[in-house]
Design a protein that fits this description.
The protein is mostly helical. It is about 65% helix and about 0% strand. The longest helix has about 30 residues. The radius of gyration is 20 Å and the shape is elongated.
Length: about 170
């Protein structure tokens, strides 16, 4: 199930990326011939914001975010699991606050128009609460998996271990 979700997410993000690149390319060509597509750059920016959120979620699921683990790496698995869980709980609290503030920002931007495209700016700002809630769910999933496998010492919350099965990037 999780593998299928990761594959669907990869396909969706790849389509978003291709659309974004295509929009920018077509806009550049059309501008060169004197017929600029003003809305295409706005739409590409909107897609880029959403793509950043999907990339953060995917990277968190694959435990690929940059981390400084110089001191905890020499500690045992149990200590590392406790430290990563505490950090995760603090991070989850921060994500909830940011998601709430992003939701309020979205409500404030319902009437605002994004550039010349006539797209409501709320479509951009809603990426923040949605992305952060999905990121929080991914972290929560990582915490649960790490604690379920604590006896074997195979998994941690943020750090890739030998017990982690890497979801292939290709389909």
């Amino acid at each position: 199930m999780l593998k299928r979700l990761a594959q669907a997410e990869f396909i969706f993000a790849s389509a978003m990326f291709a659309t974004m690149v295509g929009l920018v390319f077509v806009a550049a060509i059309m501008r060169k011939f004197g017929h600029p597509l003003i809305w295409s750059v706005d739409l590409a920016q909107l897609i880029f914001v959403w793509l950043c959120m999907f990339a953060a979620i995917r990277t968190m699921r694959r435990k690929g975010h940059l981390g400084v683990d110089l001191f905890v790496r020499i500690a045992g698995h149990r200590f590392r699991l406790v430290v990563e869980t505490i950090v995760s709980l603090i991070f989850l609290g921060m994500l909830v606050v940011l998601a709430w503030e992003g939701y309020k920002l979205t409500l404030m931007n319902m009437e605002r128009i994004f550039g010349d495209s006539q797209i409501p700016y709320a479509f951009v700002t809603i990426a923040v609460p949605v992305g952060f809630l999905l990121l929080g769910a991914t972290i929560l999933f990582n915490i649960i998996e790490a604690w379920r496998n604590r006896a074997t010492g195979e998994k941690l919350v943020y750090t890739q271990t030998d017990g982690d099965v890497d979801v292939p990037a290709e389909i």
